[in-house]
Fold:
Amino acid sequence: MRSLYNSADDAARRVVITGMGVIAPSGCDLAGFWKNVCEGRSSIGEVTRFDASDSPSRLAAEIRDWQPTEYLDAKSVRRFERSLQYSVAAARLAVENARLNFDEIDADRVGVVEATSLSNMEAAYSAREALDTRGARAVTPSMMISGYVGSGSAEIANAIGCRGHALTCSSSSASGNDVMGYARHMIQHDGIDVMIAGGAEAPIVDTVFFGFAQSHAMTRWSGPPEEAMKPFDQASDGFVIGEGGAYIVLEELTHALSRGAHIYAELLGQSRACEAYHPMAPHPDGWGVARAMNKALQAGRIDPARVNYINVHGTANASNDLAETRAIKEVFGPLARRLALSSTKPVTGHALAAAGAIEAVICALAIEHSIIPPTINLRQPHPECDLDYVPGHARPYPIDVALSLNSGFGGKTSCLILGRYRA
Structure:
C-alpha cells in the first residue's frame, strides 16, 4: 500500500521553496528575523498583555508593537483576531517574496494548508465576554467565522486568490512540519503546482498561559528573561510560550524554473509517528522521534551521512531534551557525533503549531546562507546531552541536508527534511 505522503515515484515532481514570510517576535521581515536568530538575540520578556504576577511563570515571547495595518486593510484588522492577522500577513509576505503573479499562473492549481492548535482563542474569549456583558445580540457572525479552527486557510485563500483547495491541520506542535509534508504530496500527486504552507498561533492569553504554567511545562526562571530557556542544560526547567506565523511557498520545480523563481532549498521529505505513550510526556527512549526520522530518511532516500544539521525541537524540558538526544543517537549511530544540532526556540519562543513553520524558514535560510544558528543559554550541558548543539554562537558551514524535528502532545512527532537545491 502506498504511503499517503511518500512513494517510489516522488522524484517525478521535485518540490522547492521559492518564497517565505515570517511574523515573529524575532522579526517580521526575513532579513531582520534571520539576523536575530543568527546573533542569538532572544525575544523573550515579561508578559505585558495581562497580569501574571500570581503565576509561577511570567515570561513570553510576544510580538511587540504589532502594526497589523502594515499588512492588512482596516476592515480585515477589525474582523481578524490576532492569529488570523499573523497568518494572512505571513502568507502574503511569502507570496510577495516568491514574486508570484496570479495573473500569470493557474490559480486552480494553487493550494493552501495551515497549521494551528490553539489559534482563534481571542475570538472565542471576545465572544464570551460580549455575551456576558452585553447579551446575545452582541455576539456577531464575524466572531463565529473568525473563531473556527479552519478560518486561517480560508482567509489566506481569499486574500491571495488561490482556488486549488484550502485545508487546516492540527497535530499540536508537530503541525508545522506535517503541513509541509501534506503540501509536498499535493504537488507530487494531486495536480497542484504551488502550495502556500505554514502556520500561525496567538496563544498568549491568560487561561492558556496559566494552564501551561501550572503544568510545569513552562519555565519558572526569575532571572534575566533572555536567559530563561536552556535546552540540553542541567538547569533547564521548561519552555517560554511564543506566538507568530510563518508561511512558505512550495513549488513544483519545472514550474519554478519556468518563471525564473529564486530557489532557497528543496523539500526532500517528511514523515511522522505517534508514540501512543502519554498525553504530554515523551517516551524516555525517544521512540517516536527516532521512527519519524527513520521514515523520513527512508522515504526521501536520504543517506544519513548527507545530513549536516538538525534543528531540534529543543523545548528545554529535561525529558524532551533527553529523549530527542537519545533518538538522534539511535538513528545516526556514530554519525551523530559529527552532526550540528541547535534549538532556536530560546530566541523565538515556542510558538506551538507555528514552531515547525518558523523553523522550516530557519532551516531554508541556514542552507541558503551556509550558517548554522546557535543554541543560546547552554552553559552546563546535561551529562547525557553530549552532542554538538552549537552553543552560544552561529557557525558558518555549507549544509547539504537539514532536518527539522518537532513533537506535540499525545506523542505526535514529525521530521522534515530540506536540502540544498541542485539542478
Summary: Confidence is low (pLDDT under 50) at residues 1-10.
